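Figure S7 source data.
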Amino acid sequence: MPRKELLDSIRKYVHPFRISKGKGFRLKDFDPGDTCGLKLGKKEAADLLQHGIAGLAEEQDMLYAQDTWSLLLIFQAMDAAGKDSTIKHVMSGVNPQGCQVVSFKQPSPEELDHDFMWRCVKRLPERGRIGIFNRSYYEEVLVVRVHPEILKRQKLPSPLVGKRIWDERLADIANFEDYLTRQGTKILKFFLHVSRKEQKKRFLDRLEEPEKNWKFSASDVQERKFWGDYMDAFEEAIRATASKHAPWFVVPADNKWFTRLVVAAAIVDAMESLDLAYPKVDAAKKKEFAAARAALSREK
Ligand code: ATP
Ligand code: MG
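C-alpha cells for the predicted magnesium ion complex:
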C-alpha cells in the first residue's frame, strides 16, 4: 500500500481517543487495553509504525524549513505507562536539530522562587521546532493536587491559596494554551492511559529484569496508593483544558505497540492539518540561483 493510504488507514485509530471538548468527559469510558479491534504481531505493528514515523519526518522537514509554526507535544501519565519509550520510538525518525525533549522533575529551589509556568516558558519550542515536554505544567494540577503539602513549598501568598485554587490553575493553563495557539504553537497533549494492573506487571518486570532494574523506584510504588486521586485529577484536567486547538489524546497504554501507533498518527494528522510547505522561491531568488549556477559551471 502506498504511504498516503497507509497513513490514512492508521488515522482512524486517532479519532476515538481525541478529546477536543472537555464537557462531559469521563475517564471510565476509556479502556486502557483498547486496540480498536486491531490485532497485530510485533513485526506488523513495527512496520505500520515505521510508515507513521516516515510521514512525521517529512512533515518535520517542512516545519523546520517554513520556520513559522512550532509544535508542542505534552506527555503525561502514571509511572511505567511508557512515556519514555513512546517518545523514543515515535520520534526516532525526526531530525534531532529540529526537536527538543525536556523532562520536568520536582522543581528546584530557583524554580520554586517563580510562578509555576516560568520553567516551562523558558523551554518552549522555537518556531519551526518540535518541543516535547516529558511531564509539564500539568503536574501542577496532578501531583501537586494529590499531595497538597507540595503546594506549601511553592511559597504562594496565603490569601491566594483558597478553595478554588485548582479551578484557577486549570483556567490559567487553558488561557496559556490559548495564548500559545495564537502565537503559532500547535499543542497536542497525550495522556498515556495505563491500567493499575498493567502498571503492577511493569513494576514487577523492572524488579526482575536486570536491564530494567535502573528504572525501578520504590516511591513509584507508593504513588500507586493514590491511584484514584490521580485519575480524578486527570479527569478534571482533561475536562477543563481539552479544546479544538489544544486537544487531549487519551491513549490506551496497556499495549505499547498500539500506544505508539496512536501517538504517531495523532502527530502526523495534526501536522498535516497545518498545510506545511517548503518556502516558495520568488523571481529574484530564481535570478540569484541562475547566477550561482553559471558561476559554478564556470569553475575549472
Ligand atoms: P519519570 O517518572 O517521568 O519517568 P524519572 O523517574 O526519571 O522520570 P523522577 O525523579 O521520578 O524522574 O521525576 C519525576 C517526578 O517529579 C514525578 O514524581 C513528578 O510527579 C515530579 N514532578 C514533576 N513536576 C513537578 C512539580 N511541578 N511539582 C512537584 N513534583 C513534580
Ligand atoms: Mg519517576
